[in-house]
């Protein structure tokens, strides 16, 4: 069980991560603006197009990855009550990798399209800040 100090420290880390994410979003917007200006003013298509494509690809992979999943995609996820049955290929005690807690019979769980299961409230909170499965990095849709 986590102590109040542990929870407070985790909240502080989350606040710092969200601040960093917001900063990265602003940087990405500035880079997109720069790239749009570059595309408009670039007469030499060979050099400019290759540079622009490389920068855009890099931005898409590195900067946009921490975007939240769409509300519709989260609401559409399969939700059910855990019956104690172990998922194929997992150990005898099924755990939620978000909170690291054991899934008990009767727990509300959510299954992502990649078939990974989590406590419902844990994965919903996770997907508010990122759009990828914490186990396999399966990408859910984003608004960005």
UniProtKB/TrEMBL annotation:
Family matches, as Pfam families: zf-RING_2
Location of the RING-type domain: 96-137
Keywords assigned by UniProt, alphabetized: Metal-binding, Zinc, Zinc-finger
Source taxon at top rank: Eukaryota
An example molecular function term from Gene Ontology annotations: ubiquitin protein ligase activity
GO cellular component: nucleus
PANTHER family: RING_U-BOX SUPERFAMILY PROTEIN, SI:CH211-59O9.10
Name listed for the protein in its UniProt record: E3 ubiquitin-protein ligase RNF181-like
Species, as recorded: Prunus avium
Lineage: Eukaryota, Viridiplantae, Streptophyta, Embryophyta, Tracheophyta
């Amino acid at each position: 069980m986590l102590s109040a100090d542990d929870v407070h420290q985790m909240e502080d880390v989350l606040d710092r991560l969200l601040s960093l994410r917001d900063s990265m979003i602003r940087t990405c917007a500035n880079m997109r603006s720069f790239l749009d200006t570059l595309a408009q003013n670039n007469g030499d298509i060979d050099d400019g197009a290759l540079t622009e494509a490389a920068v855009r690809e890099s931005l898409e992979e590195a900067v946009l990855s921490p975007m939240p999943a769409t509300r519709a995609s989260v609401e559409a996820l399969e939700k059910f009550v855990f019956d104690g049955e172990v998922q194929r290929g997992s150990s005898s005690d099924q755990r939620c990798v978000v909170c690291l807690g054991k899934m008990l019979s009767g727990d509300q769980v959510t299954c992502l399209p990649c078939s990974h299961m989590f406590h419902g409230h844990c994965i919903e909170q996770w997907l508010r800040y990122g759009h990828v499965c914490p186990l396999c990095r399966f990408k859910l849709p984003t608004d960005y």
